[in-house]
Amino acid sequence: MKPTHPPKIVLDVQKIRADFPVLEREVRPGVPLIYLDSTATSQKPRQVLEAMDRFYRRTNANIHRGIHTLAEEATAGYEAARERIARFIGAAAAHEVIFVRNTTEAINLVAYSWGRANLNAGDVIVLTEMEHHSNLVPWQMLAAELDLRLEFIPVTPEGLLDLDAYHRLLDLHPKLVTFTHMSNVLGTINPAQEIIAAAHAVGAVTLVDGAQSVPHLPVDVQTLGADFLAFSGHKMLGPSGIGVLYGRGELLEAMPPFLGGGDMIKRVELRSFSVNALPYKFEAGTPAIAEAVGLGAAVEYLAAIGMEAVEQYEHEMIAYVLERLEEIPGVRVFGPEAQHKGAVAAFTLPEAHAHDISQVLDDFGIAVRAGHHCAMPLHTKFGIPATARASFYIYNTRQEVDRLVEGIYKVKEIFG
Amino acid sequence: MDDLYRELIIDRYKNPQFRGELNPNDITFEDDNPYCGDHIRVDVRLDENGVVTEAAYSGEGCSISQAAADLLIEYIHGKTLDEVKALTKEDVLDLLGIELGPVRLKCALLSLKVLKAGAYGLGEATDDLVA
Fold first, then answer.
1. How confident is the model at residue A35, as a pLDDT?
2. Out of A201, A210, A315, A407, which could bridge A361 as a Cys pair, Cβ 3.0 to 4.6 Å?
3. A379 inside 8 A of chain B by CB
């Protein structure tokens, strides 16, 4: 008989923790750090820190066009990172990986370049009610400029997308469907493959905000069928200041450049220029070279663990988190049940505001975020001004979850 | 933390003395703290000499922002409009009696910002009002 469960993939959390220098830190004397804010930004393993340090100590030079040894090494390091990232997300070619600053810049690039070239007054863009501001405001700006119509897939009270409503919105023949793969507040993992297939069936282009999914789940652009995928390095063990726009080659080829300047040109005359090939067409100016090298090291680190193992570990983690939080009287956790959810728990307490929860927890060395998490419309929908959000990554342990629960009881004691 | 959550702050948060809205009023203003979504409205009634006879606040926020608002509104009763305009960050911190980091400072000062924007009749509440 075949086993009914896939073989268990083991992730050695203590070995992983030993790679993260910041986890050795005490927030105050005698109070070790419990970092539960990886959805905002992840911590960095020494492999990433060392790769960047080595780049600056041994190699530092500007990339492309340099003939000297350091320039060649810097270029090779930068391009090797691109290739590694392309493999990590299953891109057909490395030139489909464009280095940008972060998810926000990647989405703005698509809005400015693809959007302005392909959208006209009255065209429909479909988004969701659970978008981060970074996948909302660029489209609001473009809609104001081009007189576009924005439509939103509703979020159900359980924190899932209303897919029936989505299918009705497709009758409007949208030109673009853009959505978050995993909500940074609800933790909802959206059925990206299904959403994309339905969008393609009506001729829409698709953009996936992978800021939360690429760090935490196996994401393969071929399997998804995504036209664009945007994500940030700093949320996936890499440094800040580097992110990626993946775009399908033929779409990127047809798009006008975004920023003008050095590197993005093939030839320049006083009154004209011709555009460089991909990916350089979209990488004007000196990029974040050391950061790209750092992100390459981060991707190597994650690939060595295996994203299936990451996903499984975090799935078990969030199931435990929800079980523990739900035993606390009054705690309300937003978002779906564990099977549809990444390792994010945004919650409220009747007694205390999110700020106060976060402040009390900080006294125990526990770092959680408080606020609207750059998703104000979603909080408005649920009728709450703010939530406290605990989020988890490969270096978090069940003992830390237990400490969080103790901390929440302390909040209740102070404010109850 | 025990310093931050002095009994006074917890007490004012749980049992506010000056929560509510005044309609009609002579001064009303409201604003948000964009970092956390806190919202405060302040209403003031003045007598013919420009002295505060009644004041109230409404909205939602953390214990620091709500307790600061409650203490501030109590403090301005009997003050003239000019005295209200002259209030500073230090006045609020004295009322709270605690030290605050930069993020929580914004919570504590939201009500003062809103009050002063209203007192000056400004279109928007700017940070320089509580600098």
1. 98
2. A407
3. yes
